[in-house]
Amino acid sequence: MKKNPMHLKPRNLTIILLLAMPVSLVLALKYGATPIDWTSIWLALSRQTQGIPITIVWELRLPRVLTAFAVGGLLSLSGALLQVLLRNPLADPYVLGISGGAATGALLSMLFGISGYALSGNAFIGALFSMILVFGLAHSHSAWTPVRLLLTGVVLAAGWGAAISFILAIAPNSNLQGMLFWLMGDLSNADAPALPVYTVAIGLLLARVLAPSLNLLLRGELVASALGERVKKLRIIIFLLASAMTAVAVTAAGTIGFVGLVIPHLLRLAGSNDHRDLITQSMLLGGIYLVIADTLSRTIMSPLQLPVGVLTAFIGVPLFLYLLWKNK
Amino acid sequence: MILLETCALSATAGPGSAEQKTLYENLNLKVHAGENWAVLGPNGCGKTTLLHTLAGLVEPESGAIKLCDKPIKSWPHKKRAQQIGILFQQEETLFPASVFETVLTGRHPYIMARGLQALLDWEDSEDFAIAEQALKDVGLLSMKNRSITTLSGGEWRRVMIAALLAQKTNINLYDEISNHLDLNHQQKLLKLISKQVENKNRANIFVLQDINQALRYCEFGLLLFDNGQHIMGSLHEIISEGTLAELYHCPFTVLEHKLGNIFLPA
Prior knowledge:
Helix content of chain B: 25-40%
Number of strands of chain A: 0
Structural class of chain B: alpha/beta
Low-confidence stretches of chain A: 1-6
CATH architecture of chain B: 3-Layer(aba) Sandwich
Largest sheet of chain A: none
Order of helices and strands of chain B: EEEEHEEHEHHHHHEHEHEEHHEE
CATH topology of chain B: Rossmann fold
Number of helices of chain B: 11
Structural class of chain A: mainly alpha
Mean pLDDT of chain A: 88
CATH architecture of chain A: Orthogonal Bundle
Oligomer: heterodimer
Number of strands of chain B: 13
CATH topology of chain A: ABC transporter involved in vitamin B12 uptake, BtuC
Radius of gyration of chain A: 20 Å
Largest interface: A-B, 27 and 35 residues
Low-confidence stretches of chain B: none
């Protein structure tokens, strides 16, 4: 085999990502509409100062940066899980219609003037409802094939898409901006990082425990059960885990596309095939990626803020196509 | 010693539908240590269903299966996977992985049995040595680091076989092992695998399409007819032009050769 020069030893890649994580977080704290110099960041983080820097760092940027990291990790982890579950490289949280349900819930809330926690709650309910629908409809006569699941999800996603278009069409103009931002991913109201951060920590742990089984499931259900896995149970756990992580992510930050699809594949292209590497790396790279995209969305057209989903796609599409082309 | 035993096993194709048909019924198979079995029969006669049922992957419609004197259902899955392994008829490669990584998946039942240690330690040097030996056995050691998505059909088949060999199971079920293999590798691998059980507490069951391969490497045979009947016993005794004609619905002729009789569809 022509050894790909881009291939890194998976363990080295994990170390690089572990080092890149704090760097990305600190850079995201520094840059924004109001740049802060390094000394002030240090003083603010160690609470040795008072005034504007401490407000910006602790109250504005840190919650947002942590949310971005957690949401990126959640989306990327659920993408990696769903790709195994459906044995399909195209699977991601959006394909299954989970985010479509969440978006419909959120947009309906906006239409009726509901905001804050109630809006988040409705988004979460939308995601759960969608999840149960896919789960229930695809699961018939104990046959729960990846193709059936994928098909159910895709059709459901299309239905949600129509519902979203309908809401946008009838919504008053004053609501449209907020709705579009939510649909493209919006971290500007991210002030409660606790739930996504805890969820990503638990999700990472569970997914990492499942990792050896995920490797087998990629070879197929029959192979996995011949090698001692309880495939049915395993698939239900994967689906629930991925759905819950997506629901939390979408609730916190709107529907951010592309992260769940692209991050696991970027890592596969870099040579991480084993899920014992891939899971941890997906979480780290997904988090870093969204933190960087969010920082750019706040700064490149400042004071105008761009929806973060625009950035994830603007960076991700050329990068992914380039890597794919280089690896052919 | 009986390694694998079925008691009144039955299966039907398309149960409940208009085309419902008995695949086999009242099958009482006893596979002893040291035996190589061939399962022969026309397309759709239930060979693969039988193999999946024997491997414990499918619940028998009726009847029971015992693995080493214990009902196969009572075996914990990981322990079962250390006893009985199966080569499937085909397997798709959809995601990239190296040849070596794929063969190492055969060690899964043992690694997971190590519990928490599996999370920290992954495969140990013994697993690596076993996987390397398996790759050597199928003649692919030099392709260890190749991506499975770049392999030819025959090479991929040999990777699947190596993964099963790395599983180190006492009872191995091979569903059309010769698929995609060139004649040299068909012969080499069948010879190697059929010899692995000699005088050991091991046994193989091969689903084969080639009667002459069956006669060359297996002493015992199970013929599944498409009317739901079956015959089993010493392969040389049950195979004749007459039974084969009935089995495959086409006339057979026999050529005598110093290696033994060769059966050909006439």
